[in-house]
Design brief:
Length: about 425
């Protein structure tokens, strides 16, 4: 049932904080995207085999997994207002180290730290975005993730431009690091002060400092369900990103130039879904939007696999991107509201599960493709949508308004 109470009108402080968090999301998306176009150069300079380079890149995911929960602990202790910009600054320093890594071991170590820092920054930025969302009284987190996607495209474009200009790798990464460090420092001035329970205390909710003696099983079920929702969205995205071009070219006979259209369609429509998702989630709630999105993605992909064709498959990949756009932000929003968990811990726990999917999904699809066919293996996408439909009850229903605040202008004049 939809709530009809009017939402608060954000004041200047809340609006500045939203812009500052968006800047941090953009920066986090852009930083390591600068490196991706230069991966072949890194591989060649260090004279690495495909297996050696692949294992070095895998260290990124291992770092995120090994230290993924550290972000939640740090946010709970020092607040996202400190952790978010500092983790971005540390990422900037680490980025430069990639350009001077002298060996496979050094490259793997730097990428391991990069994955850990990305996980910490991700948790802190989502935590602060949710603080701002509580002041707005409506969903804004989806658009933050959309800004991250735009940042990733911008970072990749910067890397490609640096190659075209013949800019040495270390100079390119140093310039990018200095630029985004300045953005992080500037944004930090406009973040919301205090710890992440400030808005809850102001609204009378209070704080949660430790797990209650009862309800731990329910907490575990909530974390598992929300984590799986986010993981299934990640599986759907990564399966398309990793195998979409291969399927279009090898199985459907598409031209080389067409092979990349599946990934482009996915990313473009996912960004669109996130940018428009806040308005839809605010009106209908995360649960209804998640079910509609999962149904759209699953049905579109199932139809494209049942009646294969290049155009229909590209359209289906776009529908997958649109359908999953709000799933990870929605699961993180719900995670931050799990009763009995200290602030930041829910975000860290739920955010850890899709990182496991990042490591497992491409390999799983590859194994299934070898055993059967890639067309059969891509049934993992509609299967993941079914899992989301079954678990969507873990998401909140109704209009998104994280904290019920009386209608007034918040924190500053408009």
């Amino acid at each position: 049932m939809l709530h009809t109470a009017r939402v608060p009108v954000p004041g200047s402080t809340a609006r500045r904080a939203r812009s500052a968090v968006a800047a941090l999301f953009f920066t986090n998306g852009a930083l390591y995207a600068n490196v991706v176009p230069r991966y072949p150069e890194l591989k060649g300079d260090l004279e690495l085999s495909n297996a050696a380079f692949g294992s070095a890149v895998a260290a990124y995911g291992l770092g995120a997994l090994a230290l993924g929960l550290l972000g939640g602990v740090m946010v709970g202790r020092w607040g996202s207002v400190r952790v978010a910009p500092l983790s971005v600054l540390a990422t900037c320093v680490n980025l430069v180290l990639l350009g001077v890594a002298p060996s496979w071991l050094a490259l793997a170590a730097v990428l391991f730290v990069a994955g850990a820092l990305d996980s910490i920054a991700d948790t802190a930025e989502n935590a602060h975005g949710l603080r701002v969302e509580r002041l707005y009284g409506r969903s804004i987190l989806n658009s933050m993730h959309g800004v991250w996607s735009i940042g990733a495209v911008a970072g990749g474009s910067m890397g490609a431009a640096a190659i075209a200009l013949g800019l040495p790798l270390v100079w390119h990464l140093s310039i990018a690091a200095a630029l985004f460090a300045a953005v992080a420092v500037g944004a930090s001035r406009f973040l919301l002060p205090g710890l992440d329970d400030t808005e809850r205390i102001a609204s009378g909710e209070g704080t949660v400092s430790r797990l209650p003696r009862i309800g731990r099983a329910r907490i575990a079920r909530s974390v598992a369900a929300l984590g799986l929702i986010a993981a299934m969205a990640q599986v759907m995205e990564d399966s398309t990103a990793t195998w979409g071009a291969v399927y279009l070219r090898d199985d459907l006979g598409a031209a080389a130039a067409v092979g990349g259209l599946g990934f482009i369609a996915l990313q473009a429509m996912q960004t669109v879904g996130r940018l428009i998702g806040d308005r839809v989630v605010t009106r209908y709630g995360d649960r209804a939007v998640a079910r509609a999105g999962a149904a759209l993605a699953g049905c579109a992909m199932a139809g494209a696999l049942a009646v294969p064709g290049t155009a229909t498959t590209v359209l289906a990949f776009g529908a997958v991107g649109l359908g999953i756009g709000t799933l990870i932000p929605g699961s993180l929003r719900a995670a931050d509201e799990i009763p009995g968990l200290p602030r930041g811990i829910g975000l860290g726990l739920v955010g850890l599960v899709p990182r496991l999917a990042i490591l497992a999904a491409p390999a799983l699809v590859g194994v299934m493709a070898d055993a059967y066919s890639l067309r059969a293996a891509l049934l993992v996408i509609p299967s993941a949508s079914v899992v989301i439909l079954l678990l969507a009850r873990a998401l909140p229903s109704g209009r998104t308004a994280s904290v019920p605040i009386r209608r007034r202008r918040l924190h500053g004049r408009p």
